[in-house]
Each structure stands twice: as structure tokens, then as C-alpha cells.
């Protein structure tokens, strides 16, 4: 029986890796994958809590998150395709249209 | 036919509209006269038919539509035709027709031909509405209408300054009277809540105290003094001679000055309730009669003499009304209309013959040249002087007898003196103008000519009527006119018969061989006195101006009684007095007010504007530097701050994400440690 803390620590580590990736990587696709990593880190902790509390609520949440992540992946990749077509790069430093 | 009474004013209205709108452009010289004359003559025919229907007992009192509805006050546009209106209709439309006809000849060469006929028609319409209306407001409408039309017609030759002045004088004088009239109307409304004749006269005996009745009647009478040229507001009428002569005839005989007499006669129910007013009217009438008659003696302008004669005769009418002899007053109005119209049109004919000469001193010996005019003029003059059996005799006699039999001996005395003067001035005029040696300017002399038949025709007709309408009062005191108007005024208990009546009864008694009743000797004597007075007036004129007796040489007399002559010649200086008392002070007050306006009011206005300007300058300065400064300063501040702050907007999504993460960590830290 793996103790609860292990799941949570794993989840926190994965989340931190994801967050760091989002902040420091320059390639948009990698950032995107890091976001997926953060989502799945959260999923792990939700499933862990679900099991500990003997409640299905957490797992239902997970399904929702996976659905949203799938949709997000579809849209996100589409945005990236069109971004690449316009800019010919996926370097986020060069994509700064929101600047003043 | 009486139900078609509305046609009477409508036809001349249409004529006036057609002539007024299209006369100048579309009518060649001589169509306006056909339209106007035709319209008014048709009206006359309708009036004549209606008159006979009224004689046989018809009566009309109909409201056509609601004219003014305001709160409780309802005023209808409606006509009333009773014997009084019927007889006035005859006078107005009859005289007006003849004047129209005469004007075709008289105004022949005038440029304002169509304009003249437009005004004439309007004048007639106004008077018709005045006499036909069945309430006081409609009467007032006509009252103002004749005032306006008289202004337009007196000032017809407005290029002449004197004509313009006379028109203004007439208008302003009438305005003074109108004020009284309007106040009277207000008082009537406040008392009865209606202006309808039938209702007012029905309510009057029960609703009116003597005091209020006196106030109403006096106020209305003030209106009448202006419109009918009584003391003190008569001065406009002689000046009104500046208008074309047919207009004078119309004003004097039919459409204007009779309005006041009609008004008093129409309101006799109220007047009878106010003995004080009646007294005042009688006295004013008598004084006017004498006053104007004496002025007429010394005048030299042919139209002016006749004008003062009108004032004097109107005085008689009011005397009669004031004495309660309404029938006599209205009857005198009726007879006067014919002989005065004849006199004026005669004057016009003379002036026409003499190419515009109006001064009788430059006439003389006209009889052989213009026989028809001279004879008709003579007949009218006899009627005016009150010689049996001409029309004026009967009516004037009844008025004088009303005074005498009522015990008003002073009024009778004044009236009799005025009668003497009337006879004298009329025949002074006639003898000086038509007989003796010609004093006509020799440039004018060789084309003296009788007027065309379109002018002499009316003269002859009027002279005929002036000679014969007296028959309506036969048998005296009990004649057609007395019964006819008695329907309106009631048959008086004391028999205001007149001297002629006594004469008639006397003859009747003699003829039938009955013994004469007692007390008739006095009346018989009075008749002789009356006729004697008139005849002596004529006689005096005959001696002075025809026989030219040395003892009665007018030149010498006027030198000897210089003061009297000058006083009369200058019309008692009444005009000068009014100028001094009212006109000049008003003008002066006007000038002073103007100066006050110019200096004080304008000064205040300009000063205020100056202050506003200064204030505006200050405000402008404040706005520019303080308010704008504040606004711009704030904007500048924001600008500077934003220059710093916008550095934070890197546009780099990862930067933002980092900030968000730090924020979350911070919040979590706070949450964890506290």
C-alpha cells in the first residue's frame, strides 16, 4: 500500500516541473506539453484524494479535466499551426503582440 | 325672404373680397363698380322685401353658429331683425346703394377706383353687421368695423397730409369712445353673463340696480359720443371732410354716425332704467345741437357747414332719445339720412362742377348753371331747416315737442335756438353759393357743368325722399312710423304727438265740425313758434345774403361782433383746446418717454450688457487658465505615470505567467503563515 504522501509529492513534483517548463521554455509546443504535464499532475492528486476519501467525485473531475485537455489540445495545436504559418516561428519571445 | 337675411351682409362682403383681391390686377377700370354697386343694390332689394315682411309682422332672431365659447360665456353669431333693424337696414342699404351709384360718377378718374369701392363695400358690411347682430359683441364688431373703414376712407387720399391727419384723428377719437363701450360690455357680461339682446333685456328689469344701469348706460354712451360725434368727442367729424365727398355722405347719413343712435335705441330697456343717464344724454344732445349749429354759421367750407349740420342734427337725435322719445329719435335718424345724404351728394356735385372748389365765398350765382343740383339742394336744405311739409319738420318737431311736453323747457329752448341756427346756416349756404353774383375764379368759371346723370339721379331720388318720407309720420303721433317702431319701444302712455299732430287733429276736428278739445291752443301756438323760428332763420339769411340789406351786411356785422365771429369761425377753439389739453401733453409725454427710453432704459440695457461682457471676460480667463489648466494638468500627470507603468506590459506571456505564479505563491504563503 503506497502511502498518500507519495502520490501528493509526485503530483507536486510533476506540477513544479510543468510550471517551470511553462515559464522557461521558448518553444510553444514544449510549453504546451508542460501545461499538459501540470494538468496531469493535478489529476494524480485528485485520484489520490478520491481513493483516500473513498469518493468518486475526484475521479469524475479527472474525466472532465481530460476532456477539456483534449479539446484544448485540438484548439491549441490549431492556433500553433496558424501561428507558424504567419510568423514562421514558434519562439514565444518573438510572439509579443500584446506589448504596448 | 326674412330667412335669407344673411344674404344682406354677405353680398357686399363678397364684392369687397373680389374687388380687394383682384381689383388692382384683373379688373379693368370699370368692373369693380358693377360688382360693388350690384351687390349693395341687391342687398337693398332684399332689405326692402324684408322690411315689408317685418311690417306684416315677421321677426327674426337666429343664431347661425357659436362664435365664442369661453367658460360660461357663450356668444353666437346671429342676426336679429325687428322693426328697428328693418328700418335701419333700409337706411343703410338704401343710402349706400345711392352713394355707390353716385361714386361711379364722382370717383371716375381716381386711380384708387377699385380700392374705393372695396372700402365702401366693407363700410356697408360693417354697418350691416352692427345693426343686424343679435348681441352686443356683434354690434361691437360692426362698431369697430365702421371705425376702421372710416379711417381708411377719410384717409383715402393719403398722399395729402391733412387727409392722413384727419383719418388718424377720427380713429383715435373713436378709440377713446370705444374704451367706454368695451367697459360697458364688460359690465354687462359681469352682470348677466351674456351679451345676447333678448336675454339681457329680459333679465335687465329684475337683475339691474339703478346704479349699475347708470354705469352701463353711461359707458356705452361714451362710445356713442365718439361714434355719433357728440360733445365732447365730436371734433373728428368735421375733419372727416378730407375724405372723398361720397364717403362723407355715407358716414353722415348711413353707415357711421347713426351707430350711436341705434345703439342707444337698441338698449332702450337699460337706458330707461337709468334716469340720470337719460338726463345727461338729453343735455349733451341739446348742447351739441346748439354748439354745432352756431359753429356752422361762421364756416365757409361748403362741406364743413354740412358736417357741422350733421353734428347738430345728431344732437337732436340724442336729445330725443334722452327724453325717452325713442321713436322720434330714430325717426329723425331716418329722415336725416335722406336729406343729409342729399346735401352731401349735392356738395359733391357742386365741388365736381367747380373743379374742386369748396369755399362758398368763391362760389355764387351757380343756380343757372347747375339747376338740378341747386333744386335738390334746396329741398334738402328745407328739410334740414325743418319747414313743413318736408321730412325734417315732422321728426324735429316731435323731438322738440317731447322736450316741451315733458317739461324740459330749457332743453326745448336750446333746441329751438339750434333750429333757428340750422335754418339760418343752411340758407346762408344756399344763398351764398347758388344766388347772387358769381365770384367763381374765371379759370374755373367757363367749364362749370352739371354732373352726369349717374350723380344727379341719386340726388333727385334723395330729394324726393327728403320731401316725402315725412308722410310716414302721418297721421301725426299715430302714424305708420309710430306703430311700427312702437313694436320695439312700446307705445308711451303720454302721447308724444308733436305739434304736427295737433295741427292735424285740429284740421280733422274743423273738417268734421267737432268742437276743438281744450288745451290744444298751446300746442297750436307752439307749432307756429317752431315753424316761425325756422322761417325767421331763413328770412334772416334771405335778408343778409340775398337782399344784402345794408344794416345786416355780414362784413360789418362780423367786424362789429369780432369776438363772436372769431369764436365761431374758429369753432370755439375746441380743437386748439383739445390740442392743448390732451394732444400736446400726450405728444410731449410720448417724447419724454422716448427720451427716458433712450437714456435710462437703453442706458440700463447697455450697462447691463457691458457688465455681462466684463463678467464674460473674467469667466473666459478662469475657464482658460484654471479649469482648462486643471484638466490638462491631470491629463499630463496621467500621461507621465503611464509612461512608467506601461513598461510592465512586456507582451511576453511567460512574464505574465511568472507574475501570476508569484502571486499565487504569495497568497498561499500569506494563507499558510497567518
End-to-end CA span of chain B: 116 Å
Based on CA atoms alone, the radius of gyration of chain B comes out at 37 Å
Beta-strand fraction estimate of chain B: under 5%
Number of strands of chain A: 0
Number of H- or I-type helical stretches of chain B? 27
For the biggest sheet of chain A, the summary is:
none
**Interface with most residues:** A-B, 13 and 10 residues
Mean pLDDT reading of chain A: 90
Task: Kindly estimate the percentage of residues of chain A that lie in beta strands according to DSSP.
Answer: under 5%
Order of helices and strands of chain A: HHH
Class inferred from helices and paired strands of chain A: mainly alpha
**Poorly predicted tracts of residues of chain B:** 493-497, 514-519
The shape of chain B is elongated
Task: Tell me which oligomeric state these chains represent.
Answer: heterodimer
Secondary-structure content class of chain B: mainly alpha
Please give the largest β-sheet of chain B: 2 strands, antiparallel
Q: Which blocks of ≥5 consecutive residues of chain A have pLDDT under 50?
A: none
Overall strand count of chain B:
2
Helix content of chain A: over 70%
Helical content of chain B stands at: over 70%
Spatial strand sequence of the major β-sheet of chain B:
1-2
What do these coordinates show?
The complex is a heterodimer of chains A (100) and B (674). Chain A is built from three helices and no strands. Chain A has helices at residues 4-24, 28-53, 57-87. The model of chain A has no long low-confidence stretch (mean pLDDT 90). In chain B, α2 (32-55) packs antiparallel against α3 (83-106), α3 (83-106) runs antiparallel to α10 and α15 packs antiparallel against α17 (391-405). The model of chain B is unreliable at 493-497 and 514-519 (pLDDT under 50). Chain A binds chain B through residues 19, 22-24, 31, 92-93, 95-100, and chain B through 646, 649-654, 657-658, 661.
Amino acid at each position: 500500500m503506497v502511502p498518500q504522501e507519495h502520490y501528493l509529492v509526485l503530483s507536486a513534483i510533476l506540477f513544479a516541473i510543468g510550471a517551470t517548463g511553462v515559464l522557461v521554455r521558448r518553444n510553444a509546443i514544449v510549453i504546451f506539453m508542460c501545461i499538459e504535464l501540470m494538468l496531469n499532475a493535478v489529476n494524480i492528486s485528485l485520484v489520490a484524494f478520491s481513493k483516500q476519501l473513498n469518493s468518486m467525485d475526484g475521479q469524475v473531475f479527472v474525466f472532465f479535466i481530460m476532456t477539456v485537455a483534449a479539446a484544448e489540445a485540438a484548439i491549441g495545436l490549431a492556433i500553433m499551426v496558424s501561428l507558424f504559418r504567419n510568423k514562421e516561428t514558434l519562439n514565444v519571445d518573438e510572439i509579443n503582440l500584446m506589448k504596448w | 325672404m326674412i330667412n335669407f337675411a344673411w344674404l344682406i351682409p354677405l353680398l357686399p362682403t363678397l364684392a369687397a373680397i373680389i374687388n380687394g383681391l383682384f381689383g388692382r390686377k384683373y379688373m379693368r377700370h370699370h368692373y369693380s363698380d358693377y360688382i360693388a354697386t350690384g351687390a349693395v343694390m341687391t342687398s337693398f332689394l332684399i332689405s326692402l322685401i324684408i322690411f315689408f315682411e317685418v311690417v306684416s309682422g315677421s321677426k327674426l332672431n337666429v343664431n347661425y353658429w357659436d362664435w365664442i365659447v369661453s367658460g360660461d360665456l357663450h356668444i353666437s353669431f346671429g342676426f336679429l331683425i325687428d322693426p328697428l333693424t328693418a328700418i335701419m337696414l333700409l337706411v343703410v342699404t338704401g343710402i349706400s346703394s345711392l352713394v355707390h351709384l353716385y361714386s361711379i360718377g364722382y370717383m371716375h378718374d381716381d386711380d384708387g377706383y377699385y380700392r374705393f369701392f372695396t372700402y365702401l363695400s366693407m363700410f356697408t358690411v360693417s354697418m350691416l353687421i352692427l345693426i343686424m347682430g343679435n348681441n352686443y359683441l356683434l354690434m361691437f364688431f360692426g362698431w369697430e368695423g365702421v371705425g376702421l373703414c372710416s379711417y381708411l376712407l377719410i384717409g383715402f387720399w393719403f398722399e395729402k397730409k391733412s387727409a392722413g391727419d384727419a383719418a388718424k384723428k377720427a380713429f383715435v377719437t373713436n378709440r377713446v369712445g370705444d374704451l367706454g363701450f368695451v367697459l360697458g360690455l364688460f359690465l354687462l357680461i359681469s352682470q348677466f353673463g351674456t351679451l345676447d339682446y333678448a336675454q339681457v333685456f329680459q333679465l335687465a328689469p329684475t337683475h339691474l340696480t339703478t346704479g349699475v344701469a347708470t354705469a352701463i348706460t353711461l359707458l356705452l354712451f361714451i362710445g356713442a359720443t365718439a361714434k355719433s360725434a357728440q360733445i365732447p368727442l365730436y371734433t373728428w367729424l368735421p375733419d372727416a371732410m378730407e375724405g372723398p365727398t361720397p364717403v362723407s355722405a355715407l358716414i353722415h347719413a348711413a353707415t357711421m354716425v347713426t351707430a350711436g343712435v341705434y345703439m342707444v335705441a337698441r338698449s332702450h330697456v337699460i337706458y330707461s332704467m337709468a334716469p340720470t343717464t337719460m338726463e345727461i344724454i338729453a343735455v349733451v344732445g341739446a348742447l351739441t345741437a346748439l354748439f354745432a349749429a352756431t359753429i356752422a354759421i361762421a364756416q365757409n367750407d361748403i362741406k364743413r357747414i354740412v358736417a357741422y349740420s350733421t353734428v347738430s342734427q345728431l344732437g337732436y337725435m340724442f336729445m330725443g332719445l334722452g327724453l325717452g322719445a325713442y321713436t322720434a329719435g330714430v325717426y329723425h335718424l331716418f329722415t336725416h339720412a335722406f336729406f343729409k345724404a342729399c346735401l352731401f351728394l349735392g356738395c359733391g356735385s357742386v365741388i365736381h362742377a367747380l373743379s374742386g372748389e369748396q369755399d362758398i365765398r368763391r362760389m355764387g350765382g351757380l343756380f343757372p348753371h347747375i339747376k338740378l343740383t341747386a333744386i335738390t339742394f334746396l329741398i334738402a336744405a328745407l328739410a334740414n331747416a325743418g319747414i313743413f311739409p318736408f321730412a325734417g319738420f315732422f321728426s324735429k318737431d316731435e323731438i322738440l315737442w317731447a322736450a316741451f311736453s315733458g317739461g324740459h323747457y330749457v332743453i326745448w329752448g336750446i333746441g329751438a335756438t339750434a333750429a333757428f341756427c340750422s335754418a339760418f346756416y343752411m340758407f346762408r349756404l344756399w344763398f351764398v353759393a347758388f344766388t347772387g353774383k358769381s365770384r367763381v375764379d374765371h379759370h374755373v368759371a367757363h367749364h362749370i357743368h352739371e354732373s352726369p346723370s349717374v350723380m344727379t339721379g341719386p340726388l333727385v331720388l334723395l330729394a324726393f325722399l327728403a320731401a316725402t318720407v315725412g308722410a310716414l309720420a302721418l297721421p301725426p303721433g299715430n302714424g305708420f312710423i309710430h306703430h311700427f317702431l312702437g313694436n320695439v319701444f312700446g307705445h308711451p302712455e303720454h302721447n308724444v304727438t308733436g305739434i304736427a299732430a295737433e295741427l292735424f287733429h285740429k284740421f280733422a276736428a274743423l273738417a268734421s265740425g267737432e268742437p276743438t278739445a281744450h288745451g290744444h291752443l298751446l300746442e297750436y301756438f307752439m307749432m307756429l313758434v317752431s315753424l316761425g323760428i325756422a322761417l325767421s332763420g331763413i328770412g334772416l339769411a334771405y335778408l343778409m345774403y340775398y337782399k344784402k340789406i345794408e344794416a345786416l351786411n355780414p362784413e360789418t356785422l362780423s367786424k362789429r361782433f369780432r369776438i363772436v365771429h372769431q369764436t365761431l369761425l374758429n369753432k370755439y377753439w375746441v380743437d386748439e383746446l383739445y390740442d392743448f389739453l390732451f394732444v400736446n401733453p400726450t405728444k410731449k409725454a410720448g417724447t419724454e418717454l422716448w427720451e427716458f427710453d433712450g437714456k435710462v432704459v437703453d442706458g440700463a440695457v447697455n450697462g447691463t450688457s457691458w457688465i455681462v461682457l466684463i463678467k464674460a471676460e473674467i469667466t473666459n480667463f478662469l475657464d482658460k487658465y484654471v479649469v482648462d489648466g486643471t484638466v490638462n494638468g491631470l491629463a499630463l500627470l496621467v500621461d507621465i505615470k503611464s509612461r512608467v507603468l506601461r513598461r510592465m506590459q512586456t507582451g511576453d506571456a511567460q512574464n505574465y505567467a511568472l507574475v501570476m505564479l508569484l502571486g499565487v505563491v504569495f497568497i498561499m504563503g500569506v494563507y499558510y503563515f497567518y
